[in-house]
Amino acid sequence: MAHPIMFDEDDPYLARLRSVVGRFPGCFEKVAHGRPTFRAGEKGKVFAYFGGSVKQPQGHEPHDAGLLFKPDPAEADALRDDARFWSPAYLGPSGWLGVDLDGPDVDWDEVAELVDASYRQVAARTLLVELDGS
């Protein structure tokens, strides 16, 4: 059974995120579990998700305009201590974090840095050489 689509194709935050991830070599988008995922290279390893949720005792708290990313291990603890970041359902135990893109104080330069760190953890060496050479 296919997952229902859980995003709006015309979402302005998704459009902005697409403009951020579009600069990464070999990046492609694929809908999985009803949400856009951004993947690196031929193996298609995920480095970013658009939208997620936080598991609560009474169910899931949606973060439909959230970015899920794998933080740089050197920065992960500091990010976890920052109230803007949250542990997403299902991916949190594997070290992933989420941040909302629809808040009033979103720093898109920081978003680009978070996406860059996540991409660098999954991309093939050849893609990283291409990224650093561009």
UniProtKB/TrEMBL annotation:
Record-annotated membrane-spanning stretches: none
SUPFAM superfamilies noted in UniProt: YjbR-like
This protein's record includes keyword Transcription regulation: no
Molecular function GO terms recorded: DNA binding
Gene3D superfamilies: 3.90.1150.30
Pfam family, one: YjbR
Keyword entries, A-Z: DNA-binding
The UniProt record lists the keyword Ubl conjugation: no
Full protein name: DNA-binding protein (MmcQ/YjbR family)
